[in-house]
Each structure stands twice: as C-alpha cells, then as structure tokens.
Design a protein that fits this description.
The protein is an alpha/beta fold. It has 2 domains: 16-156, 3-Layer(aba) Sandwich (Rossmann fold); 180-374, Hypothetical protein af1432. 59% of the residues lie in helices and 6% in strands. The protein is built from 16 helices and 5 strands. Strands 2-1-3-4-5 form a 5-stranded parallel β-sheet, with helices on both faces. Helix 8 packs across helix 13 (305-319) and helix 11 packs antiparallel against helix 12. The longest helix has 62 residues, at 130-191. The N and C termini lie far apart (98 Å).
C-alpha cells in the first residue's frame, strides 16, 4: 500500500471470541506490493480468526484465485503490472459473489465510482483503523453468506420443483395410461359386438386425424378430434343387438332407436372433463351440412368443426368396409361419393382438404388395419387348434 499509511488506532475488543467462532476457516486474500503492509494486515486478520494468503501484485493474486477458493479479497489499487481495478474486474469474472474490498489513499471520486460499478463491496480510504478493516471484512462476509444462502435456497427450491414436476408427470402418465386403457376397452366392447366392424373406430380415428391435421388442427382440438372419432359409436352400447346386427334395412321404429346413439354417447362422455370436447363430436357426427341430419338437424357452421371433419372420414371408412347390410366398395367409390355430397352432406372446405391428401395415404391406413386383423384371426385360430 504505497499510497500512504494507515493508523492502528485502538483495536476494539468487542465480540473477539464471537468473531473467532464465526470466521473459522474463512479464507482471505490480501494483495499489496508493500510486503510489510501486507504482512501486518495478515497478522491482524489471522488474530481475528481468518486464514490469510498473501499476493504482492495483481498477476500473482489472479493466479492464486484461479487455483484456490477465497471468501474475501482485499486489494490495493496502485500496483505494478495488473493494478487493483484490473484485479477487481478479473475476480468478479471468476466469481461474481466474491467480495472485493479496495484499500487506497486515492481520494478520487471517479476511481471510487468505477470500482463500485465493477462490483467492489467496499472502498476504504487511508488512513483507516484496523478495527474499521475488521468491520468491513465482517460486513462483506455477511453479504456473501446472504447471497450464497439465497442461491442455495433457490437451488433447493428448483430441485424441489423439479422433483414435484417429475412426480406429477409420472402420476399424469399413469392416469393417462389408465385412461387410455379404459377407452380402448370401451372401443373393444363396441367393436366386439360385430366382427365385421372390427377396427372400424380405429381406422376412423386415423382417417380423422390425417384430415384434421391437413385442416390445421393442433393441440387440444386435434386431441379432441382423435378421441371423438375413436368413441363416436360408444352410444351404440344402448342399442339392441337385434337392431345393430340386423341383416338388411331397418324399419322406422328401429331407425328411431338407432338415432338415439349420438345422444347416449354424449351423455356417457360429457361428464368426463377430459372428454368434453370429444363428446361434441360424438353428439353431432350424424348431422349434415344442409341441416337434414340428426339428432338436432344442425347445419353449416353450427356443427362443430371436429364433427364436420369426422363425417368425411367416417364416410370413407363406412363405404370401403363390409357391413351386415352391404359389401365393401373400393376407395374410388368413396372418393366419388364424398365429392358428390360436398355442400349437402359434407362441409365443402373439408372435402377440398380430403381431395388434397394422396389416395395412397388413405389406402395405406386401411391396409395396415386389415393386416393387423388378419394376424389376430390367425393367432386366434392357432389357439383354438392347440
């Protein structure tokens, strides 16, 4: 500290024993090119209960900081080579929480302001008492401890939030898995009533999702379209087998019962919050663009968009599949019928999107499910033989 002397003053003895306990193992780095001054400060701080290391220029101090951990740095400003201001800046780059106390006789407001902007924790002008130095060190340590404590607390909170998030995701995954299994069981129970319509709901879902994606549905709307198309016939649980499996056309009374299935399905699903959006598709999937459908005769954009998309997908699925009352027709026939009914049965915008999807995409979905069905039948027959 070539800048000038400091005064010993009377070293206040208050709290000396407390300080020895509180500051045990705290490491300080004293930096000054005046060896005698540095060593005097070192002896004083060691009596205060600190472990002190010395450096006699800024370069030596920086090397020391790069190879060891310290709790406070006390540095002179005027030193050959790297000065105290440069050391302050480099120290903060190594550890932004490391307190740096600048000790100098330079009574220069600009220098002081510059030092504080660079992160100096204190700026002590000479002459000063050793007791004042001790107070400045304690204050710097308390600030550092507060910063580190807050950081630890924040990290603990982040870990706690991360763990709770992980557990929540796991719980949601388990709930979703249970939900999916329940829905699949519902769909299987519907399809099991008629071997000719196995995989009908699943094919309808894939057709719907492909068409919905083409029309720009994303997120919850796309999810609702998928669930609604998969569960569209869940209301047929309430339709008698004598009607559902009847060979040939239905009479008026039978049609009256059959037309109840969208409302039955809606009543089953709408109380389930996760399926509320899907229940709208179930309720309206037999409406028509021109208002001649059922159960409510809604028309045009009164019909939920997801239901309008499903109508086209379901028509493709129904026309190309075997039913008790009809044979399967080729995809070209389904395509012709959908285009013909644009503006009457179907939303013209949905039909336009349908025509933009390559025919091979629709056929590949159908062939995939028929391959799965053939494999299942083969496995069942093998089991019977065994």
């Amino acid at each position: 500290m070539r800048d000038g002397p400091f005064t010993h003053g009377g070293i206040c003895q208050r709290g000396m024993e407390r300080r020895l306990d509180m500051n045990d193992k705290r490491r300080l780095l004293v930096v000054d090119d005046e060896h005698a001054i540095a060593e005097l400060l070192s002896r004083h701080l060691e009596r205060e209960g600190y472990r002190v290391s010395l450096a006699f220029d800024g370069d030596e101090a920086l090397e020391t900081l790069e190879n060891a951990t310290f709790d406070v740095v006390l540095t002179d400003i005027r030193m050959p080579g790297r000065d105290g201001i440069a050391l302050l800046e480099a120290s903060k780059q190594l550890d932004s929480t490391l307190p740096v106390i600048v000790l100098t006789s330079i009574n220069d407001v600009d220098t002081a302001v510059h030092a504080m902007r660079l992160g100096a924790d204190d700026y002590i002008l000479k002459p000063f008492t050793l007791d004042a130095l001790s107070v400045a060190v304690e204050r710097a340590l308390e600030r550092r401890e507060l910063i580190l404590s807050n950081r630890r607390h924040r990290e603990e909170l982040e870990l706690a939030v991360e763990e709770k998030t992980r557990k929540l995701r796991l719980a949601l995954s388990e709930v979703q898995g249970t939900f999916n299994a329940t829905v699949e069981a519902m769909v299987s129970s519907i399809e099991a009533r008629d071997c000719e319509t196995q995989h009908h709901c699943r094919r309808a879902r894939e057709y719907t999702l492909m068409l919905a994606h083409r029309l720009g549905l994303r997120g919850r709307d796309l999810r609702d379209a998928g669930w609604g198309s998969l569960l569209h016939d869940v209301g047929k649980i309430g339709v008698a087998d004598s009607i559902l499996l009847k060979q040939g056309p239905l009479d008026d009374d039978e049609w009256g019962d059959m037309r109840k299935h969208p409302i039955i399905g809606y009543r089953l699903l709408s109380p389930i919050r996760f399926l509320h959006g899907a229940s709208q598709i179930v309720l309206h999937h037999h409406e028509r663009w021109d208002g001649t459908g059922y159960p409510y005769g809604k028309q045009g954009e009164e019909i939920p968009f997801g239901a309008r998309i499903f109508m086209v997908a379901d028509a493709v699925e129904t026309i190309t599949s075997v039913r008790p009352y009809k044979n399967a027709l080729p995809f070209e026939a389904a395509e012709e019928e959908v285009v013909r009914c644009a503006g009457s049965h179907f939303d013209p915008a949905v039909v336009d999107a349908f025509r933009q999807i390559p025919r091979s995409n629709w056929i590949s979905i159908r062939e995939k499910y028929f391959a799965d069905l053939d494999q299942t039948r083969t496995q069942d027959e093998s089991a019977i033989v065994v």
